[in-house]
Amino acid sequence: MTATVQKIEYRPDILGTGYECTDLEFPDDYEGKVIATLVRKKAKKQTSKAVLYIHGFIDYFFQTEMAEKFNEQGFDFYGLDLRKYGRSHLSHQQFYNVRHLSEYDAEISKALDIIGSEKQDSVLLCGHSTGGLITTLYAAHHPYHPLIKALWANSPFYDFNKTTIEKKLGIPNLSLLGKFLPNLKFPSGLNRWYTSSLHISLHGEWNFNLEWKKERYPYAHLSFVRAIYEAQKEIHKGVYMSVPTLVMHSHRTTNPKNWGVDAQSSDIILDVKDIEKYALKMSGNIQLCSIENGVHDLVLSALPVREKVYTELFKWLNLKMA
Q1: pLDDT (tens digit, 9 = 90+) per residue, 118-151?
Q2: Topology annotation, domain 11-159+239-320
Q3: Based on the number of CB atoms within 10 Å of its own CB, is 259 exposed (0-12), middle (13-18) or buried (19 or more)?
Q4: Strand ranges (DSSP E) for the chain?
Q5: What's the confidence (pLDDT) of residue 2?
Q6: What is the average pLDDT across 70-95?
Q7: Closest by Cα among 99, 130, 256 to 193
Q8: Are 135 and 158 within 8 A, CB to CB?
Q9: What is the pTM of this model?
Q10: Of 25, 54, 108, 257, which residue is most buried, by most CB within 10 angstroms?
Q11: Domain extents in the chain
């Protein structure tokens, strides 16, 4: 059973008509006051099915097309901006600062409690990239949760996109250093063209807040490296998923040095071979789906590509959450 929650007061969200949001409050952490933000978009007809979506690193929820696709399929949609991201970032906080991914369990659990209190009894938990890693571990750590009926991982961050030597030596040593010097910055290695390939003012078709989803993020804190590495070690050993799980990824990875077609037709953030490798190590009802010409966030791919994403996703969901 879900926990008893007080009546939630929503306010209009920045995304416009039909979108509402509410702040979730938590005890102070190592930076002080902490909140997360739950965004809601209700389906036109009353339903007992819902989606809880978790964004990726340097990200927040803005994918209205995805929310409305779920609404059309009879799901109420909930997007969660994690602490220190997007709507939830407070002026005294470093963006995206985290020391262990379990910090996010509090807002996921509270969001699920709210969803349950709003008469939903079947939830698709889903996450993109770092959110895919977070939601995979949340589902694995909460087997047979009364609400979670399936998991959709969109290009989950199951491994660093690094060379073998960097993975075996560099990342573990950076992680260890991050235990003692969490605020030390290290080159992120993120491809410079990713956000440029998406934003309407640059080369893409999507409008989002460039302060919350930055065009460039050249340095990451070692605390983030450590948090991801510790979580990935569990994935690499193999986890049991008690709910049907769909892992989606692009059909290829590239690392363009200059602007070109690859930036809008491949994953330029993660190595899709790593995603597939570690998804196959998970046990349970696991299905993989490769999307031709998909970008890192598959629902932001070119129109024909994302139509394929939704076709495959809802075909799977109709079987697993009928």
Answers
A1: 999 999 999 999 999 999 999 999 999 999 999 9
A2: Rossmann fold (3.40.50)
A3: middle
A4: 11-12, 19-29, 32-41, 49-54, 76-81, 122-128, 148-154, 185-187, 219-221, 240-250, 283-291
A5: 47
A6: 98
A7: 256
A8: no
A9: 0.97
A10: 54
A11: 11-159+239-320
